[in-house]
Amino acid sequence: MKGMIFRAFIDHVEDAYGLNVADAMIESCNLPTDAAYTTVGTYDVAELVQMLGKLTELTNTRIPTVLNQFGEKLFFNLANSHRGLLGEVNDSFSLISKIDNHIHVEVRKLYPDADLPDFTFESVGPDQLTLTYQSKRGLADLAEGLLRGCFAYFKESVEIIREDISGGDSKHVKFTLERSRPNHG
Ligand code: HEM
Q1: 3 has pLDDT over 70
Q2: Is the shortest distance between the CB of 116 and ligand 1 below 6 Å?
């Protein structure tokens, strides 16, 4: 997993829980890298899982909640640091329909060793879309957070209905997205 994800995670922990908690989280882990991540370096996702475990112990929170909140912030971070990749999209559904066949493809050109999930999507109507996430890393909660960040980025109200196809390990998850339009009644 790319160092930019680890650095964004530690920044998020510092912002959300404070420097002391971020330091305690890192010190209580046994990280081969000592959390010295470079943006374009590649590191074992197990280090992120270790930090998540310690953070939820220290803050009495749940991993799905932390990954969701981090994902929302991470979307803005990735979108703002890779503006060119977003192109001229003006709404969340247009962006989401481009994740697998454009955005992540361009990401893989930039970072050939990136660990990217697989997405398939189906447009059911102008305001309904299903997106299926698949990854051996089981980060569907991060994907859900990134989706929420995408809706916030485009200032849209979208309901997420989630179905875990892989029996609860977050490796294969279907998201049904229903967008509500502001009524100009
Ligand atoms: C709503 C839109 C998006 C979703 C749902 C999404 C989902 C994900 C997920 C779940 C991962 C973690 C890897 C895994 O689960 O196996 C990931 C990794 C990543 N995504 Fe996306 N992504 C989105 C948009 C973007 C955008 C806009 C960018 C940049 C322009 C981007 C760049 C990346 C990068 C660099 C990684 C890290 C790969 C690595 O660590 O090796 N993503 N994405």
Answers
A1: yes
A2: yes
